[in-house]
Design brief:
The complex is a heterodimer of chains A (363) and B (617). Chain A has 14 helices and 3 strands. In chain A, 70% of the residues lie in helices and 4% in strands. With 363 residues, chain A is mainly alpha-helical. The model of chain A has no long low-confidence stretch (mean pLDDT 85). The longest helix of chain A is centred in the last third of the chain and has 34 residues. Chain A has one domain. Chain B is an alpha+beta fold and 617 residues long. Helices cover 37% and strands 19% of the residues of chain B. In chain B, helix 14 runs parallel beside helix 19 and helix 15 packs across helix 17. The chains are: A mainly alpha (363), B alpha+beta (617). The interface between A and B is large, with 60 and 49 residues.
Chain lengths: 363, 617
Amino acid sequence: MLDKRLLKNLDYVIIAVVVLLTTISFFVIASASPESPYYHVKRQGVWVALGLVLFVLTLSIDYHDLAHYTKYLYYINLVLLASVFIFGREAKGAQRWLRVGSLELQPSELAKLIIIITLADLLSKRASSIRSIRDLLPVFIHVGLPMLLILKQPDLGTSLVFIGLLLGMLFVAGIKWQYLAGLCGLGGALAPMLFYLLEPYQRKRILVVFNPYIDPTGDGYNVIQSMIAIGSGRVWGKGWFAGTQNRLGFLPEQHTDFIFSVIGEELGFVRAAGILLLYFILIYRGIRVAMKARDDFGALIATGVVIMFTFHILVNVGMTIGIMPVTGIPLPFMSYGGSSYLSNMMALGLLLNVYMRRQKILF
Amino acid sequence: MNSKVLERRLTYMTIMAVLVFTILTGRLGYLQLVEGEKFEKMATENRIRLLALEAPRGDFLDRKGRLLVTSRLAPVISVVPMDMDDPDATLGRLSEILGYDVKQTVHDTVQRLQERKEYRPYTPIRIATDADINTLTKIAEHQLELPGVMIEEQPVRDYVLGDVGAHVFGYVREISREELETWRDKGYKMGDIVGKTGLERVYDEYIRGETGGQQVEVDAHGRAIKILPGKQMPVPGYSLKLTLDRDVQEAAVLGLRESMENIKREFPTKAAAAVAIDVRTGGILAMASEPSFDPNIFTTETIPPDIWTSINDPKWQPQLNRAIRGVYPPGSTFKMVTATAGLETGVIKPEDTIVDRGVYWRVEPKKCWKAGGHGVVNLTRAIAVSCNVYFYDLGYRTGIDGLNKYTALYGLGQPTGVDLYPVEATGLLATPEWKLENYKTLGLGKPEPWQPGETLSAAIGQGFSAFTPLQMANYIATIANGGTRYRPYLASEVIDPDGKVERTIEPQVIEELNLKPETVAAVKEGMHLVTTGEGTASYYFQGFPIPVAGKTGTAQNSQGADHGWFVGFAPYEEPEIAIAVLVEEGGHGGSAATPVFRRILEAYFGLPTETDTEETL
């Protein structure tokens, strides 16, 4: 259980940042719902409440205990991901959602957390014994299996998160530079082939990054409208509820994937950059958690969480400002959406769990 | 793990994070501070938008240029989501006025649009097409309580003949999700009205026209809408000139209905089909399928439940086009194929005779329909009196392969290539190989070889083979024109909105049968004799001014009463029109189908109908 002495060890800077981001999100989501401002806000309120419960739960279990269950977690994860194809609901051409009662959840969100925990466990035990590329094979299979299931949904964005996690955690785990460089080289060589394997719409989305104007009415439309929205916000923004791009429906998915476009348009550069600064503080303090962790397992969990957050922020914000492909990755603690908020809160729980238990407590 | 290595690598991570955020902030600053003015201008221009102006679909004209299907302007009630201050209240009030709930409709439409990322809150959502004047008045009176509700004139499809020709014309309705996926590249978009069946579907790309646009400006809050100059008028769709003849089409439909009414006490059927073809081109002059439906009902958003039930009646299936999708054994109307096979293979000559004593004994005892038989019979008389024994013998001599060769040459049991949707049925040309493969559907325990008795049944059209009324009409047309099989077709010209012919669809010869002139002459003569003297249908052509050729048919039906057929062409000497009439479970072909045939001919030749003559007497 949560000990009072443990609570003293929480990182309140991180907590303050997340509270701030969540509070801002309510205002932005309200403005990003032109049809009925409170519909999404009310629902997001429920998710935030649920998220708090999950946060406290994740915090209260000593992360060291998780190490005993990694095997089960890993297999449950595979079963959940596979079940999407059997019981899942299809939307927008992808099967990502699973219905539990009246809730619709995306198992791929939970998959990211589970892979952080299980990979941290694997690397903390094996990292020092990795002496050749061959020793890396089990690690690849470990990450590759769930990744392929997600890629098949198809959910390109989340699969890319897995690659980020794999590379980042291997790096922090201390494997040789040469291996990583080799991996990146191999990835670079395989990229054209993988590109060919992608669905045509996914290929187009990547090409649109380089030139959104090749498809101004289709995929490029979203990117162009988002850039118009952000650019037209200028220094101080058009004001809350006053973004024409947002309110008149030029922005696609403005309460979920393109929420940062609303921030840019209505709040302006100063505030949008301020929000980016909040995210940077979150990441910075997260890395600090990894440094102060009591053991390798903890350090790698914290690293995984940090990489996940960073990757999401980079890809999501990058997409809205036209430097990343449109992949449907939400902005942590900001985008409307239950599965994403819940998994982010659990990730936060894991991060602070590691920080809180950084010292041996003597009874 | 080495704690020093860990620390160093985490420091690199921090540097990476700084880099990521520098790039993001830098790009953000570039867009907002450096390029801000340019994007601000683009955002302002975004307030000018294009509202769709629907294009009227092209007309369908008959071969003489008479109107069959057109488009008219009708009041359409829509809602603009952006302009509804309180959507629940507005839609609730609107539901009261209309008398049915519209909330779900709006909700579903918005959701579908959102899924496709095509939702724009300023785009009107269609609620009711062609509302009655009372509803419109009420809405006008309560305008103040109904912000965001608008009434605009939009073109609506108008099937002027009602339920006549519904299967040929088809109907239109909002594009479905699946159609949108399939036709993605053809410029269709959500909410488009498209042809679902018939010619509306086949020629949709020609008929639909091009949606126009109206530039409108909305203010910063998106409220007031100002109409700007720069209206792009919609381009009306191309019209289709059809091979149909309106009079003949109407006669076919009314004739079928009348005939079924006359026989209903003995044979209570509602299903029938008739096809008339121009034997010189393959152009379809009439195509009727009964029961029918009124395609106008599909233009409204909500179809009343009782109408919906009746057009989906599982027993009679009013939406089924029996002329191309109904498959029936041909019965005695098949005997001209047997005759052709016998004459062309040379196993008989027209003057050869047999003696029909009522039973054919060669393979197994098989009876003629006339007890005691027809006596001495040659080919033409055999057709005239429909002598089974003669054709049993002929079938025996030609064999099943010989028969099937000529069946296939006449196009029976294969798609005709007619320009209609849903796609025509192939029918069935049963061969010995077919029987071996499909023993299960025939209820046999194991594959059994073709029996000689089955050849005899096939020779009189009572075997396994079954064809569509269109195939039958085309077969008769091929006989009538002396052996040229055309592709039956409906659309002959595509005409642009200015009346200029954009494309002409020429008659298309599928196959030259190269029949001997004697063969054609003998078969035609036999068919002519059917309508005179002792012929099986002579009663129905008494006093008919034009010499006619035809053939009755009664197809045995294991499911109920026999199907009645009549096929034929006219004039006998210089054929113009070939017709096949089928009455499902109509009993004998003569009584059910022949009056329809006569009625169609009367319309085609512009003769007074039988009923007219009675009135004048």
